[in-house]
């Protein structure tokens, strides 16, 4: 099976096989309706009600950490690290996402990354996180990793995360808006020896077949 992964800029992605999944839609131009929307945490550049509304249809399911449930309308479900749900043909596991040694994303907030199983392929969206011990348990086929620094991992810790995760493909994210630049993505790609790095332009589609 082939899964299409589109980077929409920053930490926003669209993932498609039979179902259409959006993750952290923010400043998007998309209007295709979602089967499922996944929100990693409640910061404005990840939980954007106006962007969710652009892609929300009558049958759209929305999954968000519990502190964000009241900020969205429709079929909204809360989730915490360690919890799993299934929507149509998509299996979702919430995993921890937090900062180490800084206060932007406290572990106690129970914000998340997601492991999305779709079309026989596991895709890990790390959310806003530093390199954390829990990553060694994930082992996805595709990893979507922040590399912009300041609020999340920078390049060096993202490289450590690749060592721990052992993915086949890595797509860098969380750069080019607010923090980080394309040069960070290029440095990450040049230094990453353990996985294939795909630097996407906003709107570019990567087709993944396993």
Explain what this protein looks like in three dimensions.
The protein has 3 helices and 14 strands. The chain has 210 residues and is of the alpha/beta class. The chain has a single domain, classed as Metallo-beta-lactamase, Chain A (4-Layer Sandwich). The chain has a 7-stranded mixed β-sheet, with no helix packed on it. Strands 7-8-9-10-11-12-13 form a 7-stranded mixed β-sheet. A hairpin with a 2-residue loop joins strand 9 (112-118) and strand 10. Helix 2 packs across helix 3. The protein is globular. The model has no long low-confidence stretch (mean pLDDT 96).
Concise account of the structure shown:
The protein has helices at residues 49-55, 155-165, 182-191, and strands at residues 2-7, 13-16, 20-23, 36-38, 61-65, 75-79, 84-87, 90-96, 112-118, 121-125, 142-146, 169-173, 196-197, 205-209. By secondary structure, it is α/β, with parallel strands linked by helices.
What's the helix and strand layout?
Layout: E1 2-7, E2 13-16, E3 20-23, E4 36-38, H1 49-55, E5 61-65, E6 75-79, E7 84-87, E8 90-96, E9 112-118, E10 121-125, E11 142-146, H2 155-165, E12 169-173, H3 182-191, E13 196-197, E14 205-209
Parallel strand pairs: 3-4, 4-5, 5-6, 10-11, 11-12, 12-13
Antiparallel strand pairs: 1-2, 1-14, 2-3, 7-8, 8-9, 9-10
Helix pairs in contact: 2-3
